[in-house]
Amino acid sequence: MEGELYVRLGYTMDALYRSITRHLAYSLGVVPTQASKRDIYLALSYSVRDRLLEKMLKTNQRYEDSGAKRLYYLSMEFLIGRSLANNLRAMKIYDQVAEALQLLGTDVETICDQERDAALGNGGLGRLAACFLDSMASLDMPGFGYGLHYDYGLFEQDISNGYQREKPDSWISEAPALQVERADAACIVPMYGRIEETKDKWGRHNPLWLGWNLVTGVPYDIPIAGYGGLTVNRLRLFAARPSTEFDIKIFNEGDYLRAVEQKIESEKISKILYPKDSYEAGRELRLIQEYFLVACSLNDIVRTYEKDYSDFNKFPEKVAIQLNDTHPALAVAELMRILVDQKWVPWERAWDITNRTIAYTNHTLLPEALEKWPESLLARLLPRHLQFIYDINQQFLDRVVTLWPGDVDRMRNMSIMEEGPPRQVRMANLAIVGAHSVNGVSALHTDLIKKSLAPNFFEMWPERFNNKTNGITPRRWLCVANPNLHDLIEDAIGPGFVTDLERLRELEPFAEDPAFCEKFMQVKHGNKERLKDVIFNTTVVEVDPASLFDVQVKRIHEYKRQLMNVLGIIWEYLALTEDGVEPVSPKTFIFAGKAAPGYWAAKQLIKLIHNVGNTIEDDPRARDFLKVAFAPNFRVTLAEQIIPAADISQQISTAGFEASGTGNMKFALNGALTIGTMDGANIEISQKVGRENIYICGLTAYEIEKMKRAGSYKPKAMYDKHPMIKRVVDSLASDRFCPRESGLFAWLKDYLLADNEMFFHLADLESYVKTRELSTQEYVDKTLWAKKAILNVARVGHFSSDRTIRQYAEEIWDLVAIPPTEAEKSGKLKYTPSDPSSIATARAW
Questions:
Q1: Whole-model pTM?
Q2: Among 95, 381, 645, 814, which lies 20 to 30 A Cα-Cα from 737?
Q3: Per CATH, which fold does 290-468 belong to?
Q4: Distance from the Cα of residue 367 to its chain's centroid
Q5: What CATH architecture does domain 474-805 belong to?
Q6: Number of CB atoms found within 10 A of residue 399's CB
């Protein structure tokens, strides 16, 4: 039929080989026989992207045909890591590509290793967002991510003499292999300016926002393939560029240098993830980034909606917006501004639409992570938004007064505005007031939100608060990270479990099968052999794969208590060298993680880990029993190498401080046993895998809170009472671990013995050490250990991000799956241009 075009790309080995060689020749200008590994990586990436875009076009058409409601996930972080191998497995073409690359004289693992991590996130928050995108696509749900197109992701970490050194992490050089620029969908973002109070033609109050600076947001799309490769959603990242209109005006004024300065100022908005905010300019840039994300995202969301609808009556029925923590909380004010100022929706109606559309996920109880912005900064940067925040707050407080007349303390606590000096806007309060749903990310965390963080809000809106325990995608954290374990499980229980992870329960009987247990431990040993090489190549520390691999890898932070782990290592070291108590098994303690550049205490912990490791290595009495290795530059790819090799997973945050954790889930899925406190999702993991298959230690959140209220935590008394605790702490005050840097760690003694030591290290230390000893004793019994490890794998299916997304979709978003049509499954794409004259363009594509 005229005006129709059928496009189909091949997925056989032969078709993929031809596609790779075509891109070598016509995209890169390289003769295949002279292609470098990097050339082949790029050509393969372009070939895969072609196929992803083919599927993405089909997916978009399916969503449009169905009139589906769409979910937009707003997040400052998307820690997607490497994409190539993940896409090959999702599209089920890994083996075909492997054969094609053999014809080019190389192998698929070598080529996939050429890819740099897209480190567009800091840790759990960004990795969770990436898992959610994978699950939405794998569940055929119309869910899309919105973030920032940072030129530089989280810094690269170098270690020099035990000290962290930061280097820029530029992933942008290879970004074109992953993404598609959408310059046609660029938007203009206003900032700064002033408010002029006027009246409209009906005499109503009509504030005008004038004199703004303009920045252009240019979107770049990264395809997100669901498992099976039939549904491909997208992650849309916005880069900041100078506004053409604004630059032309400057050029017309003849000020070339000022125009260049404006270009630089505009582009720095998306230059780097999390600029240092300890100074005023850094804080301003951080707020600009958050607003830029919100403004670009909502402009795009509204533009997409208006393609099909002429008014906003159906907006909450067709659009759901999820705020990933408080960073995008300005979406509440921005959506109100768009509806009221640009679309002429009455204020009360606009508020109803906003409230029914937006939902908010809280990720932390830490006061320093609950964002507050100075009123003066908002007044200068976003004067119209501040007016909306004032109005929202006044309407909200009027309701509070009605419910609790005369309760001034309650009003002060619940107000979006925090009285100063300086007066500040509480972003968590804005998000809670502006959203129809507020969720925590583990059962304990949600309970603490209700009881500690926002009890007044919970009393006002109990129906608004709910729990959505985090999850992880088994596609990334089993299929890609641990393919040998995946294959072993598939041989045992059959295929299909990676999209229905609860099916891992079928593995339970195999925990009693000696042959399966032996194969399981062989897979683990192979992963440890691989990690041994990674550690040696990056640290020059030689580790023994036969030793117990005890692992703590995560962001370096006081509440995550890497320090308590080190205290435990020192305890064992002193017991070995001074008391003659040998461990029943050799142990390798593996650390990895980055400290925020301005976080002095966290950087000192990295230095302490290295010095303790060096001291042990230099001591002939200890080096055959204990090893300490710190793997630098922790990122998704390194996590994929470490997690499958771990025997022990350390999840020892102070109870009540970790919202959920997802590392704990990744380790359990890969057959590591957890040593953990009753914090975050550790509680739910212990319930699922069984208390006999996890090592729980330390105080509970409620015991710690009780001690805080009573002021009964006296670490000095514990130090005086317990000789071994005293020896461990005193070793830090001496120069034992810093012989050439006298007094380097002396501050830690005062830190640990202070009555206000808020992370309760010494309170949990004895329980923690005893739990470590028990785990080591049980590790020696290989039959028992294999059984416990297999049961961890078998019972951790609840923690799939597929389950989490289904709960969000059913209980918050009202989102349904739109599965592929039979025509899609057949592989034929029907492309019908709206203008028949564009058929040539379509053929060219």
A1: 0.94
A2: 645
A3: Rossmann fold (3.40.50)
A4: 20
A5: 3-Layer(aba) Sandwich (3.40)
A6: 12
